[in-house]
Amino acid sequence: MSEHQHTDDCGCGEDHEHEEHVFIVTDDEGQEREMVMVYTFESENNVYAVLLDRNDPEADGVIFRIEEENDESFLVGIEDDAEWDRVTAIYEEIARTESEGN
Fold this sequence. Notes:
- The chain is an alpha+beta fold.
- The protein is 21% helix and 37% strand.
- It is built from one helix and five strands, in the order βββββα.
- Strands 1-2-3-4-5 form a five-stranded antiparallel sheet.
């Protein structure tokens, strides 16, 4: 996966108007939630995805590491505290930079 974020006006020539990457994620209480991938970024040779609750887009996003095995990608929760601190700091900087640009 690349760092490129597809949007309606990203200029890559693809039609992204209705493209959504939706995942069913089970939370700590066993509740299933539909999550939409809204952003990806790279750090230390790993790719991370930010997902928002499809039914509560104002809620905080959740960050997962994307791993690949046998040409298939899947989301993995981040359990290492140092890795979590690093990727949340990166995402907070990305979000701050983007909000300043708008």
